[in-house]
From TrEMBL:
Record's GO cellular component terms: cytoplasm
Main location: cytoplasm
Upper taxonomic lineage: Bacteria, Bacillati, Actinomycetota, Actinomycetes, Micrococcales
Family the entry assigns: Belongs to the prokaryotic/mitochondrial release factor family.
Described purpose of this protein according to its UniProt entry: Peptide chain release factor 2 directs the termination of translation in response to the peptide chain termination codons UGA and UAA.
Organism, scientific name: Cellulosimicrobium funkei
Residue runs in coiled coils: 52-115
Molecular-function annotations in GO: translation release factor activity, codon specific
Name of the protein: Peptide chain release factor 2
Compartments where found: Cytoplasm
PTM statement from Swiss-Prot or TrEMBL: Methylated by PrmC. Methylation increases the termination efficiency of RF2.
Domain called Prokaryotic-type class I peptide chain release factors: residue spans: 244-260
Length: 370
């Protein structure tokens, strides 16, 4: 039996869609699509594969965003018609169907509305994510691998392209660390709220006595550097070491010294790359990630200066931002937003949109309160 006030709900849906359109501006999107379509049709587009990839990705994203706004408007019109039919025919099944669709539209609008909250300097960028095992021994290494799969599955669900840049395997199981790119507009804006310390509580599969184990993994998210960014690193500030790439358990997967470890001497930042086939490719990838990390350091220094001038600002993220509990009960809870679910399996399979949305809204609220 339908239990909602349809006129009020539909009016609220239209209001939310209008606020989204005021930010995304369909006319601006159409102009952007026309410009990108012209660039994409250029006969020499793929002479520069990197530039071509950026053009086609931006075009696809703009087309997708415009289509989502148009479809949501049509769905609101359709559900309004469905309600009128149900009320005229006094058909309860039709009204229940309309109520379900109203809920589905609200959820899709909420997700689209989150995009309008991503207005940070680098939010529109692609992202580079690094996961590192923390305290907890082999369980922490296994947890790091679980998180890597979780984020790759999340990207796959959205059709985002990913590239694993570096993996350092632990001796017994799991990963010491892994670095990957998410090649999609606003990937950094979305994933930046995932940065911090994640905690896993479970019965350890590596403990002969079946004891409960708590382990930790750190997630770092940085915006991908672009050619327009002015991050120049003098050669004298970089130390480059080369070594052979290796797979799980130390097994060699490359007989040449193609892997690269790049150290930025002034800051001590270290970047390793081994997943490309040549030393030149790994060196270029390492330099790009190093530049991205230095870009984030520069932004953090600027923010620190602003905080010093403004005084103490509420919005501390803290070290431990989310707990994944498998024993003695099943729950995943974000400690900043209080958002929680009782299905860790779905979360580890990439179902983290609600956590990301809650994090983005929490961050915006904290910034406004500051």
């Amino acid at each position: 039996m339908a239990t909602i006030d349809f006129p009020t709900e539909i009016k609220a849906l239209r209001s939310t869609l209008e606020s989204i359109e005021s930010v995304s501006d369909p006319e601006v999107l159409r102009a952007k699509i026309a410009d990108l379509s012209e660039k994409a049709s250029a006969p020499d587009l793929w002479d520069d594969p990197d530039a071509a990839q950026k053009v086609t990705s931006a075009l696809s994203a703009a087309q997708s965003e415009l289509e989502r706004v148009k479809k949501l408007g049509q769905r609101i019109d359709d559900v309004e018609t469905l309600v009128e039919m149900g009320q005229e025919m006094e058909d309860e099944d039709t009204l229940v169907e309309a109520e379900t669709e109203v809920g589905a539209i609200r959820k899709d609008l909420d997700q689209l509305e989150v995009r309008t909250l991503l207005a940070g300097e680098y939010d529109a960028r692609e992202a580079v994510v690094t996961i590192r095992a923390g305290a907890g021994g082999v369980d922490a290494a296994d947890f790091a691998e679980m998180l890597l799969r979780m984020y790759l599955r999340w990207a796959e669900r959205h059709g985002y392209s990913t590239t694993v840049l570096d993996t350092s395997y632990a001796e017994e199981a799991g990963l010491k660390s892994a670095t990957f790119e998410v090649k999609a507009p606003y990937a950094f804006g979305h994933l930046s709220v995932e940065a911090g310390t994640h905690r896993l509580v479970r019965i350890s599969p590596f403990d002969n006595q079946g004891r409960r184990q708590t382990s930790f993994a750190a997630v770092e998210v940085i915006p991908l550097i672009e050619q327009t960014d002015s991050i120049e690193i003098p050669e004298s500030e970089i130390k480059v070491d080369v070594f052979r790439s290796s797979g799980p358990g130390g097994q060699s997967v490359n007989t040449t010294d193609s892997a690269v470890r790049m150290t930025h001497i002034p800051t001590g930042i270290v970047v390793s790359m081994q997943n490309e086939k040549s030393q030149i490719q790994n060196r270029a990838a390492a330099l790009r990630v190093l530049q991205s990390r230095l870009l984030l350091v520069r932004q953090e220094e600027e923010n620190a200066k602003k905080k010093e001038l403004a005084g103490d600002i509420k919005a501390s993220w803290g070290d431990q931002m989310r707990s994944y509990v498998l024993q003695p009960y099943q729950m995943v809870k974000d400690l900043r937003t209080e958002h929680e679910v009782g299905n860790p399996s779905a979360v580890f399979d990439g179902d983290i949109d609600d956590f990301i949305e809650a994090g983005i809204r929490w961050r915006r609220g904290a910034q406004q309160d500051a």
